[in-house]
Amino acid sequence: PSAMREVMLELPKVRWEDIGGQKEIKKQLIEAIQWPQIYPEAFKRIGILPPKGLLMIGPPGCSKTLMARAVASEAKLNFLAVKGPELFSKWVGESEKAVRSLFAKARANSPAIIFFDEIDGLAVTRGTENDGTSVADRVLSQLLVEMDGLEQRSGVTVIAATNRPDKIDPALLRPGRFDRILDVQPPDLSDREDIFQIHTRKMPCSSDVSLKELASLTAGYTGADIKLACREAAVAALEENLEISQVSMKHFKIGIGRVNPSEVIFYQNLA
Ligand code: ATP
């Protein structure tokens, strides 16, 4: 038996409407992954093959994971998610085996998406942080072997995500591997309004709540921050009165005040 926890198969239930903004990335995911599933004959006729690997780059909390789950849901694909660092094992050879069985499982359950979050934790540029024979190197080599061996019509698409593109080994980006780059940006003003709308759907809001104003108060907030701010707004309402039945603008202002915008922190740390 493997010392590593087996990667679970999921059939996620995330709709495109659950994601605010990111219109361009949604379009790219639909064309690269959903279309080849729905219209295989069209792809054949026109003489193109679907991409095997896509790399999403962008700061944490900006819906990379959410979008990968959404495309799996919308295209009805099985979903196997793994965080880069999870693939390390202290047992020699065990990590490569984990990569092999992950791909085998995806092929056996195709059409499927393999999602590697924090791929930078795995695909660190070889030779920079180690002597070239570390577990990371061996896992990366195995990943490349699996990507290269993947049939383009196998129905398996690999999506990787990172917020440290500078740490990615360029070997991963060669044609036939992760050759589509999706640049995931933090939400702009109108995206933030959409995200507030999504995360207040199930909240009874008073008529004084302006989503537009909330969006303008949250420059530098990621989608994850906004979700948290909405929750904090509801908590602030309950703190005022446990019998309260509506969340109002003042509660949202309190909620926003309780959450620090991660985008600012993220870019400060990179600098
Ligand atoms: P990480 O790099 O940390 O994995 P991520 O970019 O993958 O971050 P997610 O895990 O997808 O981010 O986002 C965290 C949560 O924040 C999501 O589950 C979702 O609830 C919320 N969220 C983030 N972005 C959006 C968005 N654009 N619309 C709606 N909700 C969002």
TrEMBL record:
Domain of life: Eukaryota
AAA+ ATPase domain sequence ranges: 50-188
Family in the record: Belongs to the AAA ATPase family.
Protein name in UniProt: AAA+ ATPase domain-containing protein
Organism: Vanilla planifolia (Vanilla)
First-to-last residue of the parent protein present: 732 to 1002 of 1014
